[in-house]
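Take a record:
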Amino acid sequence: MDDMTPQVRWELSERRRLQREQEQEQQQARREGNRGLYVLGGVALAVVLIWVATASSDNEDTDTSVPVAVETPTRYRPIVPSAGATAGATVGAPVSVPPAAAGSTHSRTVSRTSLTPWPFTVESGLLRCRPGQQVTFEAGGVEYGVNGLAQSKYPKPLPIWADDPNLGYGLKVDISAVIEAGRALC
């Protein structure tokens, strides 16, 4: 090593230092990777234990079989209001809201002849602007949420929303004209 120039000595020491740093980084990555596996395993174990405890407490008086999932309605099934529907029962369910008069400033009757393109399969209905710029369309006794704001409280208009024959593949007719007309009522 004595016959090396200072430049060569420096390059060798730098190379060794970089190798040590790379080894330390690899060891750190392995430790962190193992830690992640331990956490993941712990979470999985906790989920299994909770499931077993819940299943055993639900079935103490009956057989030990796994509970069967309850069928829930799909988003494409039309929502039919029930006689006892109450406000806030479930998201997407029809809500009993005091009706706005057809002649009020926040609602108007619209039909196939008044809006182009007409996106619905029904001939006409009552277009409303509810508080918070929620645009709704009532047809057949059901009030549907037309824009995203209203769809958090009212069902989507899928049962009455027409398919676009030009687009095919189940794509729907453009509904923006209805949304714009409804927002104009706000």
User: Anything to note?
Assistant: The mean pLDDT is 75. The radius of gyration is 32 Å.
